[in-house]
Specification:
about 130 residues; alpha+beta; six-stranded antiparallel β-sheet; 2 helices
Length: about 130
């Protein structure tokens, strides 16, 4: 989808399971990939994401020791939570079972308002 106002309609939601061994696991996945028309560095994208998260009604953290910047984001205004990952020249919005489309759309609008390029939005979904 390449749209000036994408809907962020969620085709499949992951299911949260709790294995006997402990922890939590998600079955299925949906993500929205936001790709800028320009070719910014990963650092530029990380800085953009963090500027938006710092300036708005978000609580977020990068508490994981992963090879890519990944944030668990809580949008207080839209009462929703989702993950944001910066990799491969794009910003990925990963859906959690209770993620609301309005929160994803709000983050998209805030990112586009703070950048000087257009963005392409695509959705990848696997119900299993």
């Amino acid at each position: 989808m390449s749209d000036s106002d994408p809907s962020f309609s969620i085709p499949h939601r992951p299911r949260r399971t709790y294995p006997r061994q402990g922890g939590v696991r998600y079955e299925g996945e949906t993500l929205f990939r936001l790709s800028p028309s320009s070719d910014p560095s990963e650092n530029d994208l990380v800085n953009l994401v963090e500027r938006v998260l710092d300036a708005e009604s978000y609580t977020y953290g990068d508490w994981f020791d992963l090879p890519v910047p990944m944030y668990l984001v809580r949008d207080r205004e839209h009462d929703t939570t989702f993950r944001v990952v910066v990799r491969y020249g794009s910003v990925e919005l990963h859906i959690l079972p209770d993620t609301r489309s309005s929160g994803l759309q709000a983050l998209y609008h805030r990112l586009t308002a703070r950048s000087d390029c257009s963005w392409n939005v695509s959705c990848e979904s696997n119900p299993n």
